[in-house]
Automatic annotation (TrEMBL), chain A:
Keyword terms: Nucleotide-binding
Region annotation Disordered: where it falls in the sequence: 177-199
Top-level taxon of the source organism: Eukaryota
Protein name: Ras-related protein Rab-31-like
Family: Belongs to the small GTPase superfamily. Rab family.
SUPFAM superfamilies xrefs: P-loop containing nucleoside triphosphate hydrolases (SSF52540)
PANTHER family named among the record's database cross-references: PTHR47978
Pfam family, one: Ras
Gene that this polypeptide is encoded by: LOC113506642
TrEMBL record, chain B:
Listed Basic and acidic residues bias regions: 73-82, 627-643
Gene responsible for this protein: LOC113504389
Biased composition annotated in UniProt, kind: Polar residues: 644-656, 707-727
PANTHER family: RAB GDP/GTP EXCHANGE FACTOR, RABAPTIN-5-ASSOCIATED EXCHANGE FACTOR FOR RAB5
The A20-type domain, residue ranges: 26-60
Matches recorded under Gene3D superfamilies: 1.10.246.120, 1.20.5.4770, VPS9 domain
Keyword Ion transport: no
Name this protein carries in UniProt: Rab5 GDP/GTP exchange factor isoform X1
UniProt keyword Translocase present: no
One GO MF term: guanyl-nucleotide exchange factor activity
Organism, as annotated: Trichoplusia ni (Cabbage looper)
Residue ranges, annotated region (Disordered): 59-84, 487-520, 620-656, 706-744
One of the GO BP terms on file: vesicle-mediated transport
Length: 223, 744
């Protein structure tokens, strides 16, 4: 079975329910097939798709504006991002647009983006129209899901769609770590970074590269 | 060590790796770009190590100069802070802590300087030469072995071996590169090493049955051991020499001190200071953060951070503790903890922790949070605290001690308390150690005493047994007697010597005599005091024995007494049948032989064998030896007429006897001479005495040489042939034939 490890970062303004979303998902899935690492802002969960397993590391971030400048540290090397906004707050939706721009300019690799409109239970206070959000999501190539951390519709869908998108993306994602879980005939599938390293690594490692010594003087004497 | 050659190869390979594509490399391609005669290295941009370092230094200086022109806000604040906080008690704590860490570092540097120096020296000398093999203490290896067994008992030994090989090569590589590379390059290199090990684990057959979780554990295991060792070396991986880490540490520590007035209110984190549980959590978090500095290896530091953050998370009372709460609380904790060498630690982990681990996983997440907290503190402004700029400046201008509440003071004391606790622990350990040492010393002393007693007992036992053996030795005196006996005949020879070399010989004889006599006496004493008294009787005995042997071989017997003496000599001479000279050798041999040999000499066969060996040194002479006796008479004649007459005289015992009375003083010399009047010039006599007293023998030889040489030049050609008396002494018989051959 193919296994993919991915890092997913949850971005959004303060108070949009990022953590609630995650906690709700983890808490709900806990009884099923998910083995979460207990911790309030960092989780790992395994999502089993039909022919693969996706290991998700969920990094929650602080949404306060004053910590905004630190965000790059969090989303560095992330493979997916959940952009969470509050459907009752236009500002939070605008903030999402800012996040997307930042990600696009700062992250060189392709990322799986998901736009999540949270607090869908507060329909009467809705300030951001679903169509508008969906349109925006489509423009950036992202899924759009409306969720409610309170009533938990859509939450599964967020993570499932992210996982399957990651699976599709995995062949083209260099930083995504994937391998076969079959221990017997394990081939280092992904990990081009390792591939790069082995080239230079061979050069440096004595025990595994004994024959490959290039020495000019020796060559000379031969001829 | 068994990985030595591999390392060597790898080094070579590294040096020329960039040249790989072209099959032939001219030697000039390998030289330093600067044109000095040393070899260059692609790692050093084609320079030799020396030129490269110079280049690097120039670059760094330029960078510093450019950066110095830009005013650094931090530095300004530092100065201010120093003035302001100099009288606060809290700042004293901090200063002490800083000083401690610095002195610690210096001490480490001193320890390490031996290695460093040798390394740099070698690089200066020539880049091609490898630095002296730096031995990684066996402790690392042993530690790995034992821990591996404890942690991965199910894994095969091959894995253990691979891990250790990797750690060793890794450490060596880092140490080698540390001097030449910038920190970032080194960090990259380290990361590549980690990845290579991962790759190795994925591909090697040894790891086929290892699941991925175990592989990660193995990775951590390897990283931990390699980095723990490197961490101890100052300025290699931890706050390396080329970086500003140390200065930044100080700046950060001062900055945090300045911000000690910042409370949870400013950071908008919800802490319940009245809650005792909350307080203990905070204390725990603080002490974990403080412990980060003392944890060796990035993994250990990361673990500390993780634990600290978990405490902080629990601290956030909000039901689903989110990152929104975690970060402010963590910032607050860091502010209160003011961990020592914070920047250095963070940089160390960032650079040298396995990137895979740092990017992912809980530790990575919390570490990222810590980095955020630090960068937040660095860039903290009035806006980021949501407060008025004036108020902020006012707080910043305030002495640190005033800004803090009692709660803040208590928190700041937390660090001191922890330190005190640690030191108490250290003191206890030291005490225990001292006690152990004392106990060991006492044990050792008692052991020494008992050992001494045992030895004394044994010695007494041995003494009790041995005295019996000493008495039987009296048989030996025969040798001494024999020697003395021989001395008596020497008188005869002495006369002959006088004839040959009247002037030179007397001088040597007179001086050497005392020396010779002294050595002879002590040995005699050892054996038995009797010999001198018994001399006459013993002499007779000795002669008797000799007589039995001698008659068979002595070809020419003019007189009975003479014959007896001759016989002795002849036995010795048989191998080299030079009539008279053999006699000398014989006498020498007798002297040479220890007391036991004296006894052995009585049986003829044994004595013959011994002499053969001695003479064999001059192989050519030996062959001549049989003819020699016939030629002997001729030889002495040929060199000098005087000698010829002398040689003849000895044949006639009467003449020699007449001289005996004249030369009493030469007894010892004559000892040999008596038997061979011709040999006298060689002063073989000395040898005979020498064997008894080896030490004095040398001295005598020295004297003899001078003396003998001078006389030889003056009087006799024979002496000339044997330049050194020693050679003459050793092989009296061969000498004669040689001399004879030349003159003839």
């Amino acid at each position: 079975m193919k296994v993919i490890e991915a890092k997913i970062v949850v971005l959004g303004s303060q108070g949009v329910g990022k953590t609630s979303l995650v906690v709700r998902y983890i808490g709900k899935m806990f009884s099923k097939h998910i083995s979460p690492t207990i911790g309030a802002s960092f989780f790992t969960c395994n999502i089993n798709l039909e022919n693969a397993r996706v290991k998700l590391q969920v990094w929650d971030t602080a949404g306060q504006e004053r910590f905004r400048s630190m965000a790059p540290m969090y989303y560095r090397n992330a493979n997916a991002a959940l952009l969470v906004f509050d459907i009752t707050s236009v500002n939070s939706f605008q903030a999402i647009k800012g996040w997307v721009k930042e990600l696009q300019s700062n992250v060189p690799e392709a990322m799986v983006l998901s736009v999540v409109g949270n607090k869908s239970d507060l329909q009467q206070l809705r300030a951001v129209q679903a169509a508008e959000a969906a349109h925006f999501a489509e423009s950036i190539g992202a899924h759009y899901v409306e969720t409610s951390a309170l009533h938990e519709p859509g939450i599964d869908q967020v993570f499932l769609s992210t996982a399957s998108a990651l699976l599709q993306l995995s062949p083209s994602l260099p930083s995504l770590r994937s391998y076969d879980s079959e221990a017997e005939d394990r081939v280092p599938a992904g990990m081009p970074t390792e591939e790069d390293a082995t080239h230079t690594g061979k050069v440096e490692l004595p025990a595994w590269s004994i024959d490959s010594i290039a020495h000019g003087q020796v060559q000379k004497s031969c001829c | 060590m068994w990985f030595g050659p591999n390392l060597q190869r790898s080094y070579k390979y590294m040096m020329f790796a960039s040249k790989m594509p072209s099959l032939r490399i001219d030697q000039s391609d390998l030289k330093c770009k600067n044109g000095c005669d040393y070899f260059g290295n692609p790692q050093w941009q084609g320079y030799c190590s020396k030129c490269h370092r110079e280049q690097m230094q120039r670059q760094r200086k330029a960078e510093k100069a450019s950066s110095a022109t830009l005013p650094k806000p931090e530095q300004k604040k530092q100065e201010k802070g120093l003035k302001l906080t100099s009288h606060s008690s809290f700042s004293k704590f901090e200063e002490k802590r800083l000083r401690q860490s610095e002195t610690l570092k210096k001490a480490n540097l001193l320890k390490f300087s031996v290695f460093k120096k040798s390394n740099t020296e070698d690089h200066d000398h020539s880049s091609e030469k490898r630095p002296p093999e730096f031995k990684i203490p066996a402790l690392v290896n042993e530690g790995m072995k034992s821990e591996f067994r404890a942690r991965f008992p199910q894994l095969p030994a091959q894995v253990d071996r691979d891990a250790r090989v990797f750690v060793h090569s890794f450490i060596m590589d880092v140490i080698k590169c540390a001097n030449v590379m910038t920190v970032d390059e080194l960090s990259e290199r380290v990361q590549r090493q980690y990845q290579r090990f991962m790759k190795h684990m994925d591909t090697s057959s040894h790891f086929a049955n290892v699941d991925s979780d175990t592989k990660e554990l193995l990775m951590d295991f390897v990283e931990k051991h390699a980095m723990t060792y490197l961490h101890e070396l100052p300025s290699v991986v931890f706050s390396p020499s080329g970086t500003d880490d140390e200065r930044l540490d100080r700046a950060m520590s001062e900055r945090i001190q300045q911000l000690s007035w910042v409370g949870e209110r400013h950071l908008e984190c919800k802490l319940d200071r009245s809650n005792a549980e909350c307080r203990t959590l905070l204390y725990k978090a603080i002490s974990e953060l403080l412990g980060m500095d003392s944890a060796p290896g990035p993994g250990g530091k990361l673990a500390r951070v993780r634990r600290a953050c978990r405490h902080v998370l629990r601290l956030c009372s909000a039901a689903p503790a989110s990152a929104d709460d975690l970060l402010p609380a963590l910032i607050f904790t860091v502010l209160k903890a003011n961990p020592p060498r914070l920047v250095s630690n963070i940089n160390f982990v960032t650079r040298f922790c396995n990137a895979q681990r740092l990017m992912t996983g809980e530790g990575g997440y919390y570490f990222t949070n810590l980095c955020c907290a630090v960068s937040f503190i660095e860039n903290l402004t009035a806006e980021s605290l949501n407060m008025d700029k004036k108020e902020f400046d006012c707080y910043m201008a305030m002495p640190a001690s005033i800004g803090g509440s009692s709660w803040a003071a208590a928190l700041s004391l937390c660090g001191a308390a922890r330190e005190a606790g640690e030191q108490r622990g250290a003191a206890r350990r030291l005490l225990q150690h001292a006690a152990d040492l004392q106990a060991a010393a006492q044990q050792l002393a008692s052991n020494a005493l008992s050992f001494e007693e045992q030895i004394a007992k044994k010695v007494q036992d041995v003494l009790a047994k041995t005295p019996l053996e000493i008495k039987p030795r009296r048989e030996l005196p025969r040798l001494g007697k024999l020697q003395e006996i021989s001395t008596a005949p020497l008188i005869d020879l002495g006369t002959s010597t006088d004839r040959e070399e009247p002037q030179p010989q007397p001088v040597p004889t007179s001086q050497p005599q005392p020396a010779h006599t002294v050595p002879v006496e002590p040995k005699e004493l050892n054996v038995t005091l009797d010999p001198p008294e018994d001399e006459p009787k013993l002499n007779i005995l000795g002669f008797e024995v000799i007589d039995r042997q001698s008659p068979s071989k002595s070809p020419q017997n003019l007189d009975q007494t003479w014959d007896l003496k001759r016989t002795n000599s002849l036995e010795l001479l048989t191998p080299s049948p030079l009539g008279f000279t053999p006699f000398d050798s014989r006498s020498i041999d007798e002297l040479m032989t220890p007391d036991d040999f004296g006894n052995d000499q009585l049986p003829p066969g044994l004595s013959n064998i011994n002499y053969d060996i001695d003479l064999s040194d001059f192989s050519g002479d030996n062959s001549i030896a049989e003819d020699a006796p016939k030629s002997e008479p001729k030889d002495p004649f040929s060199p000098d007429a005087l000698k010829k007459t002398q040689t003849f005289d000895p044949f006639a015992p009467q003449t020699s006897r007449g001289y005996d009375a004249a030369i009493d003083s030469f007894d010892e010399f004559s000892f040999v001479d008596q038997k061979h009047k011709e040999t006298d010039p060689f002063e073989v006599v000395h040898r005979g005495q020498d064997p008894f007293s080896p030490v004095e023998w040398n001295v005598d030889l020295g004297k003899d040489q001078f003396r003998s040489q001078s006389p030889a030049k003056q009087s006799t050609s024979i002496l000339d042939d044997n330049d050194s008396p020693t050679t003459g002494c050793l092989l009296p018989s061969p000498l004669q034939p040689q001399s004879s051959g030349r003159p003839n």
